[in-house]
Write a structure and sequence with these properties.
With 465 residues, the chain is of the alpha/beta class. It has 3 domains: 2-70; 75-226 and 375-465, no CATH class; 230-363, no CATH class. The chain contains 14 helices and 15 strands. It has helices at 2-14, 16-70, 136-146, 150-163, 170-184, 187-201, 242-254, 270-283, 295-303, 316-327, 331-345, 388-398, 416-431, 443-452; strands spanning 89-94, 99-104, 116-120, 126-130, 226-228, 230-237, 257-268, 288-293, 358-363, 376-378, 382-383, 404-407, 413-414, 436-441, 459-462. Helix 14 (443-452) links the parallel strand 14 and strand 15. Helix 4 runs antiparallel to helix 5 (170-184). The protein is flat, with a radius of gyration of 37 Å. The N and C termini lie far apart (119 Å).
């Protein structure tokens, strides 16, 4: 029994030994496996991070490339002039019925190379001047509009804007569509487009101008064209404007259309407001086409000298403000100002009465040298058909003035064949040394002028947005 017990004890002592060793090995294998798994997971996470960083870098590079190609900044303002083209310019214009050929030397060397040239004015401000480059899409749209294909023009401009494939010329399409809606009186469409424009370019959009094209020029063009007599007010609007107002009265007796400029008025006084108010009331009694430059700015200057609840010695500034707002057809602003006037003077608010006989058109202020006469040649709302009489009038005007200032603030459309006649009629004036300037041109017409090459003999100043 003792012997078997001894063997049994030995067996019982040997049995646990291999179990501990195996457990140790198993534990080691598990630890190795865990370390390997952690290392593998770490490597995978590292690779993922590298992949993400690489993808972000690629996206950034692509974004930069797209920005450089499709969102080029506005051309820098400069006064460097490109070299004058060596060869003569050959213009061929056809309306399907006849073809006119014009060959002449480039008389405007500063209009040579790029799509837009900027002239630096005396005060350092930049004035955009169109040059000859125009994209095929813009060219096609300009010709369609000139041919009175209004619906198709609208469709193509919307398509060009939504496709965003015009590169640096994309803003031209926006401005052309703004002008089209302004001409057609489509205020709702204009406002919707303004929202999209502000979102895309992150800048203030153009504002709707209610009286920019008050008639329906596409359907029934006005007949007037010719020299626009102008009276320009400057400095302080006070008692010294009596002589200028006498000239206004004289012009009103002899001319259907004339122009009043207030862009250079710096200050206003109650006395000056009373004198101008009386003159405007007199003008409103007869039928006139009145072009007002800087009228909105004048209204702002009047507002700066009045205050709600303060009764000054005269009501003239308040009444002049209301008169200007009526002439500009700004009913909402008129109602607000009339309520302030009512509170201040404890009277019934005057009612808004749109102009009945006088037709007012606003125009942007142009930079004009003080030695140059403010009188300019006014273009009609639509240029079409034979231009024999129009060009004769332009030549008569050009005989008296240099530069030849052509006011396009009322011009909405130029028929394609008429554009050729205009080009041919102006070419001799340019070669004869006359400086020709088209001012306040809408962007649809400006594009057509580029297409036919008119900017090779004249400076084209589109109105500003």
């Amino acid at each position: 029994m003792g012997l078997f017990s001894l063997f049994k004890k030995k067996d019982s002592q040997k049995a646990p030994a291999p179990t501990d060793k195996d457990a140790s090995r198993a534990k080691q294998r598990e630890e190795d496996k865990a370390r390997l798994s952690a290392t593998t997971e770490s490597r995978q996470n590292s690779q993922r991070e590298i992949a993400r960083a690489t993808a972000l870098k690629i996206d950034a590079i692509e974004s930069e490339m797209e920005s450089a190609i499709f969102n080029s900044p506005e051309p820098s303002w400069r006064n460097k002039r490109p070299p004058k083209p060596e060869e003569a310019t050959h213009i061929e214009i056809s309306d399907g019925r006849n073809t006119d050929h014009v060959v002449f030397q480039d008389t405007l060397p500063l209009m040579g190379a790029s799509s837009t040239e900027f002239l630096i004015d005396d005060d350092g401000s930049a004035l955009a001047v169109l040059d000859s480059a125009v994209t095929p899409v813009i060219e096609e749209i300009a010709i369609l509009y000139a041919s009175e294909q209004i619906a198709l023009t609208d469709q193509m401009l919307q398509s060009a804007i939504h496709d965003d494939s015009l590169g640096s010329a994309s803003r031209s399409a926006w401005w052309m569509l703004f002008d089209l809606y302004q001409i057609l009186g489509k205020e709702s469409e204009f406002e919707n487009l303004s929202i999209d424009y502000a979102s895309k370019y992150e800048t203030s959009p153009p504002s709707w101008i209610a009286d920019l094209y008050r008639s329906s020029p596409i359907a029934s063009p006005a007949s007037f064209a010719g020299l626009t007599p102008t009276v320009a007010f400057a400095g302080t609007l006070d008692g010294s404007i009596v002589k200028q107002l006498e000239k206004v009265q004289s012009l009103a007796e002899k001319n259907q259309v004339f122009r009043l400029e207030f862009a250079r008025v710096a200050n206003v006084t109650p006395e000056g407001c009373a004198l101008l108010l009386k003159a405007l009331k007199t003008l409103g009694k007869k039928e006139h086409d009145l072009i007002m430059v800087g009228a909105a700015e004048l209204a702002t200057k009047i507002q700066s000298i009045i205050k709600i609840g303060r009764r000054d010695e005269t009501e003239a500034p308040w009444l002049l403000l209301l008169e200007i707002l009526q002439l500009l057809d700004r009913e909402k602003d008129f109602e607000e100002a009339s309520m302030d006037y009512c509170v201040t003077f404890e009277v019934s608010p005057p009612a808004f009465e749109p102009p009945q006989k006088i037709k007012v058109t606003t125009a942007a202020a142009e930079k004009v040298h003080p030695d140059i006469s403010p009188d300019r040649f006014m273009m009609p709302p639509v240029i079409s058909g034979s231009l024999e009489k129009l060009m004769a009038d332009v030549r008569d005007y050009a005989a008296q003035y240099n530069p030849v200032l052509i006011d396009c603030s009322r011009l909405t459309r130029v028929e394609f064949s008429a554009a050729g006649q205009l080009m041919n009629g102006l070419a001799p004036l340019a070669t004869g040394g006359k400086v020709i300037e088209f001012q306040g041109v809408n962007h649809l017409v400006a594009a057509l002028f580029q297409v036919i090459g008119l900017n090779s003999i004249a400076k084209i100043f589109p109105h500003k947005y």
